[in-house]
Design brief:
The protein is built from 11 helices and 13 strands. The protein has about 300 residues and is of the alpha/beta class. The strands form 3 sheets. Strands 5-6-7-3-8-9 form a 6-stranded mixed beta sheet, sandwiched between helices. A 4-stranded antiparallel beta sheet has the order 11-12-10-13, with helices on one face. Bound molecules: adenosine-5'-triphosphate (ATP). Adenosine-5'-triphosphate binds next to strand 2 and helix 1.
Length: about 300
Amino acid sequence: MSILEVKDLRKTFGSIVAVDRISFEVMQGEVFTIIGPNGAGKTTTLEMIEGLQEPDTGTIALKGLNWKQHGDKIKQFIGVQPQSSALFDLLTVYENLDVFASFYNKTRSLDEIMELINLTDHRNKKVKALSGGQKQRLAIGLAMVNDPDILFLDEPTTGLDPQARRNIWDVVLKLKELGKTTILTTHYMEEAEKLSDRVCIVDQGRVVALDTSKRLIQQLTQEREIELVFAGGPEAAKRAANHIDDEPSVSRSAVEGARVQLWSVRPEETLYRLFRFTTEQQLEVEQVTIKDMSLEDVFIAFTGKEWRD
Ligand code: ATP
């Protein structure tokens, strides 16, 4: 069931077109990630959906409701992660949650939220004494106080070290277990790949690709790269490559020393035929690797831009 529907959203700032007719739907319970280069329009898109900016044109339906007519209702079932700078530095973790909870009629148990964001042990610690990652988790906790169905996290892990980033991933996955829908933006490709049910790649204000990362990768190419290393050195590698080059599943191959690289649309078939040959010819294969495309390869293919963390 669709919980958010965005249609033909457009937003300009003077001559800058920040968002250029973006459309997508988010399903209930999904982790939906918007990725894109700097200035692609991610934050503007998110802020329009959160009701913080008004689109020039286009429509946004959250559970079928729109901001103009149903703003108060929408605020009850969405949660927006505030910037870390919006936290009260001199108040404790618990007190921050308590202040935010006072804005709402309905709240989730604060003890439960502290468990969820793994800050129970720090409940009486002042925000100024927390690490960057703990502050970000608290910010997610603040977005949870009204027990929302939909959470918006804008770059929740930017600037965090890998371990702190993983701790945030754990929180996002717990939210998913609770049946929440999470819409997030990120600069980290690995994060998009690990967390998301679907990934929306945005560039220059437009959606250039939208699907599961697995299908995006498949859509881009059916080919997989296989790498083999032969114990018999360059001679063995050349013989194997010459043999397998004739296979219809193999589009190309390259030999470098004892190493053979193959690109195949049916890797299982290619390997089956190759191993039959190497067994017959008693060529010892020292190492076999089947390389996967990554979401990063997809990003580069769709946007023509290198990915920079
Ligand atoms: P980043 O990854 O750097 O946060 P982003 O994908 O979130 O980028 P946006 O912040 O949405 O991109 O910006 C999209 C474009 O709109 C950029 O060219 C930006 O400079 C411009 N822009 C955004 N907000 C404003 C504003 N208030 N006034 C003028 N231009 C703006």
